[in-house]
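Late entry, evening session. Most of the bench is empty. Finally got around to the prediction I had been postponing all week. Sequence below, unchanged from the version circulated by S.P.
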Amino acid sequence: MIPLVNVKRQHDLLRKELDVAIKNVIDSSAFVFGEDLDKFESEFAKFCGTKYALGVGNGGDALRLAVIGLGIGPGDEVISVANTFTATIDAAILAGAKPVLVDCDEYFNIDVSQIEKNINKNTKAIIVVHLYGQPAKMDKIMKIAKKYKLLVIEDCAQAHGAEFKGKKVGSFGDCGCFSFYPGKNLGAMGDGGAIVTNNKKLYEKLQKLRFFGMGKHKYYHDFVGFNSRLDNIQAAVLRIKLRHLSKWNNERIEAAKTYTKLLQDIVETPKEINNAKHVYHIYAVRTKNRDGLMKHLEKDQIYTGMHYPVPLHLLKAHKKLGYKNGDFPNAEVASKTILSLPIFPGITKTEIETVSKSIHKFFGK
């Protein structure tokens, strides 16, 4: 059996370190805030090339707190891409803002050529998604943002360690938002998230916003906030895993190269933009007979995924946005043809070859 994701494999390698780290937190009784969180925030900021990092409850909260922290709210419009996880635009909606969607390009990221035509007097920000681990074209996006004085939030939930022109994602815009869901490139043992930024004022506001709006003095609250904190056990786990992240990302990259070599003549394999480091949180191929291939692979005990089977504008949850079938053709075609193959640190060449052979068998080649 070959799973889509296998976190047990990495945990088995780190078990002794993880056990000690978790025991130390238990012994300290510092479960909420504490030394491991402080150190992880410092280490993760350094990894991302930013001045500050702030641990929060999950990736969705990271996006929502970033939106609210930047002052985005009712009457504002936020541009984002049609093919992403719903949390990306939920953050804007929950703040009272209106998402304005743009189609994706051939790399599954926002089509930069479509951004400007969607900007108007109400546009406040762009939420950029680095989907599957591939950076968006941040040079062009930042140029547009500067021209129209727009805020930029980077959704880096699938792109820990990805780079564009030698610079880590999350460090381009006003802030970057990360998820540490267990299956991510950097995953906790439960939910977790973080926001990174170079903006001191935003960082200080987010510190309060994540903890009921409370300032330095206990029970003195400056504004209404949330309860969204990265707990100390998760921070301790993430500190250990962060030391291995670059190695794990390289293993994903090598696995992707092997897949592409074996499959490029039979399915449409991922394309990479120039001057970027794609960290392959997901290795997504495309084929017209996606559903048939998925069922075939499952019969061979090879488990795959669809990221995502319905684009945002066609979800029931976003019906009020007023979009219809046909508005974003690239995202719609992707939703019908995309298939995510097993990829994770430690996946073996034999496993990849087994997946490849099964795909070749399905197509009779």
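Two things to note before I forget:
The CA atoms of residues 177 and 195 lie 5 Å apart.
The longest helix spans residues 7-28.
Will write this up properly tomorrow.
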